[in-house]
Amino acid sequence: MSAPAVKRGAAPxxxxxxxxxxxxxxxxxxxxxxxxxxxAGIETVLIERDAAPSGSSALSSGFIPAAGSKVxxxxxxxxxxxxxxxxxxxxxxxxxxxxxxxxYTGAAAAxxxxxxxxxxxxxxxxxxxxPGHTARRMHTLPERTGAALVAALERAATGAGAYLLTRALxxxxxxxxxxxxxxxxxxxxxxxxDVIGCDAxxxxxxxxxxxxxxxxxxxPAMRDAIYGGHAGNDGSAIEWGTQMGARLADLxxxxxxxxxxTPQGALISWAVMMxxxxxxxxxxxxxxxxxxxxxxxxxxxxxxxxxxxxxxxxDRSLALxxxxxxxxxxxxxxxxxxxxxxxxxAALIGxxxxxxxxxxxxxxxxxxxxxxxxxxxxxxxxxxxxxxxGALFHTQGGLDIDAHCRVLxxxxxxxxxxxxxxxxxxGVSGNDVSGYLSGNGLLSAVAGGHxxxxxxxxxxxxxxxxxxx
Length: 469
What we know:
The protein is of the alpha/beta class. The protein contains 15 helices and 21 strands. The chain is elongated, with a radius of gyration of 23 Å.
């Protein structure tokens, strides 16, 4: 496999296969952009390395945060983009790129409404709030999986007329002497290279979580962590951008997850923590405030003896968790262990029963938690537990972009016709794991894809302002 490269001059064969807009990556970001462009009659091709669209989007829970959408308003939820933006900045301690926070929170509802017009029947997730959110704004399809989201987006985008080129590994970007992208070269099965000419290029190929060298350089805390993302996140966008003189930003930001079932390798919903569950280490102790977020929990869990912890919860939380397909799959893989009482739970964890008794005695509304958490209820036997470790899911830093998703050079000027969104670009989580607000990844993918489509259309002299009106 060749390394990502930028080549200058005339691309051989680009005239034979030419589209106005090419998009590298057919995850949630690329599909959202392609759907919007194709719906406006703009010929678009999605270049996808796998046999079918997947990426980190398909591996996620598929929950997209948006404030002010029609489905949210229909549910009677009071929310708006300003409140959403404030939640993002509160989680990132004011370090998230303000222009992107404003752009993404402002576009998210319009993006969700546009997807709904194409048959995606979203609901607002009910029952609990994810850490850092002050309103229920997670939009989900009834299946509650990222795979279902990607499949629905693929059907909508191709149904609208977008071309999907699978088993095509983008490796070359061709530019002219002015730095304008003119074509993309894709490796095909058997080693042949297809060259696709284009007038604008959108990088929607996610981040660098699958590149061990980059992870070691930029995310040392995750150097030895399990990677729960897609192998296609190989840092290609960063490689291409660097060769084209692009500026990079927030490379220390990422989404970790402190609830990766081991050895099953499955995601355990953080809903069990927000509903009253706790994480307990091998010594029978809690070690962080679980309500701060599942992303930074990855670092906390990896710092425990053996780099593992136990998610401990009760019957009420178990019933909630069983509403999530990821949890059901993990349970079918025997990740869930149930214990009649505290002695059995201590034996399962391998800790001293008296230490565990003291730990659980501090869980409740009438106790002062030394870690600062406010509990609304006590945990009651029987207890349920899942052994977990910390994992890296996807990165939140990448190419620096403006509010229109135009890639910026090292002097802050927009490159002529190169756009980026989703994991290929900097996100809205700042430069640290603790800045990740639940859903930031799909927010930047869907809202970013929506915005990038409008920018690409503008580069072609077209406007999408009247879409859906």
